[in-house]
Specification:
2 domains; 10 helices; Rossmann fold
Amino acid sequence: MMEISAFIFDVDGVLTDTVEPHYQSWVRLGAEEGIALALDFKDQMRGLTRPMSLRLFLDGREVSDEVAEDYLRRKNDYFLESLDQLTERDLLPGVRALLEDLAQQNLPIAIGSASKNAREVVRRLGIDGFISAYADGHSVQRSKPAPDVFLEAARLIGVEPAACVVVEDAEVGVDAAHAAGMRVIGVGPRDRVGGADLVVDTLAGLTLGRIRAALNN
């Protein structure tokens, strides 16, 4: 097993909780269009791209390409409005400490996210100085659970996939990381990320040493 040499972080639900603002943006759009969201919409949309979330939102309804594009634009506008309030205070527990630990030991850190807003979110969180490369919704055609975004992140930082650890909060992300040949830390409940190599409730207390001890066995 290759020594851990780099980390790739998802953004939504890992670095900060943007799931709720995303969800509320869809709720707002649904209210305007008379579309009620399924009760489990928030959980189902976790880790999905915007177009995939739109299909979930439409729930079989047929709309023209023009209407679909309008829905996507409006939803993203509503989400971007919510980012105005995002600051370093919105980092999830343990994130900054883990990033500092990895940086002190000179491990490259990349972003691997389906979001096209990943760079802006990271910037507003005040942690962009830790990030060496971004693979996001602008970078690849195939989204998770395809491995492409993580393989692109590994390519950008020049590290073999087998030496990378992905930090994810969604089942599709865990599947994508394994498809890329990477080890993965799942953040969240076991019924969602139980397929990860290491499952934690939060990143609080995690260090490179503890991660290596858990994943190199």
